[in-house]
Amino acid sequence: MALQGQDAVVSTIASAAISTQLRLVEAAAKAQVKRFIPSEFGSNTPHEKTRALPVFRDKIAVQDALKKEASLGTLTYTLVCTGPFFDWGLKVPFLMNLKAKSIDLFDGGDRLFSTSTLATIGKAVAGVLQNPERTENRAVYVQDKALTLKDLVAAGKKATGPEGWKENVVRIDDVLDHGWTELKKDKPDPHVFALDFIKASIWGDGYGSHFQTLDNELLGIKEKSDAEVQDMVNRLSR
Question: pLDDT for 80-98, tens place per residue?
């Protein structure tokens, strides 16, 4: 068995295949793997309001399977919640479009949300494995920075110049309505409704996207300063 003798499984399975982790959890339990870190790395899925969004159905099923195995003593688990990927989200673009000088300000863009770089997410995983007892059977929360979308567009304007920016105010209720409408179609497009629900989980009200309790210190992660954030935006705008 491929997992026999392994201390930990760190899953980075893509969103479209999240449900395949159920077989991996079962295999890990049979192989007596000590720690399972599922493919989370994003929204606050343990939060009651967030876990109710249909886009996270498969992630919740994996969490439930892990909790069951943990209750039986067959393995332990850690969920790593990071918020949206900061550097990736600027490159794609997801957080804002630096090249087109465009950003969607959801509900006005004043809500704080936690965000982390890919490097920090990797460090968080390493920190979990280095602190198995203090991270056992729970979610850990990390961030490089808590920002608002208005903070983000201000950094974008400093990086590219203030002229020509398009700031589109979008209601999260409209985003959710669009997602539900797509989902109710005979052949819904997951790329449409999934993105709508993910946006709601980050920028909607009451989804726990601004982490109130952080595990940064435990996992050896230092938050980034305003200057460091601006430097990243500057580099990614070129």
Answer: 999 999 999 999 999 999 9
